């Protein structure tokens, strides 16, 4: 995460346009926050225990503290690329925060059945969120230049695939109380997902400065005048 942060800072050097700077600022914050939360988890501070029936679950709460900030920032990057309006951004961020908060409830709930219920509510919010990405946001991105639209659809598809795996890892992992995936493997899976969804995402997004330039330019005039 830290290497990602340093790389993104390097990529952003010399960018003067305030609209373009937004991409770099958001992306740098994503890996910085995740890096700090991983440090918390590595030093044992980010860990707590929840009793469910006669089982004691190890819950890394720092994950949720990470995600509640980093997932809106990732969506902000996508929305910026698509040239989305405030309403669309607010809808996405609202759904996203709702998803993480209900995920936190699922993680800390002490009745196994209620954990699954809240997991279901959170997953429902994720599906609606992805629906907005595929619908409204893709429509808006398609009004941009072809290179911007192409980068948007790459990042959107990456986001859809990776984000859908989070609830799967969660329910199979210790949080799901079924215990199919031991804590070690769950932690490894979340790490790979986090690195791909944040550093991988950022590398693709910030790879081409000219594409970001095209994304921040006003939309090409359509043939409505005259
Ligand atoms: C960088 C971190 C990312 C992209 C995290 C994404 C996290 C999710 C999409 C989490 C979703 C969850 C549910 C849909 C159900 C409940 C459990 C969660 C919080 C893992």
TrEMBL record:
Membrane topology designation: Multi-pass membrane protein
Gene3D superfamilies to which the protein is assigned, alphabetical: Rhodopsin 7-helix transmembrane proteins
Pfam families per the UniProt record, alphabetical: Bac_rhodopsin (PF01036)
Localization of this protein: Membrane
Entries under CDD domains matching the protein: 7tm_bacteriorhodopsin
InterPro entries recorded: Arc/bac/fun_rhodopsins, Rhodopsin_retinal_BS
Gene Ontology MF terms in the entry: monoatomic ion channel activity; photoreceptor activity
Keywords: Chromophore, Membrane, Photoreceptor protein, Receptor, Retinal protein, Sensory transduction, Transmembrane, Transmembrane helix
PROSITE patterns, alphabetized: BACTERIAL_OPSIN_1, BACTERIAL_OPSIN_RET
Regions that span the bilayer: 23-41, 61-82, 89-110, 116-137, 158-181, 187-206
Entry keyword Cytoplasm: no
Family: Belongs to the archaeal/bacterial/fungal opsin family.
Name of the molecule in the record: Rhodopsin
Organism lineage string: Archaea, Methanobacteriati, Methanobacteriota, Stenosarchaea group, Halobacteria
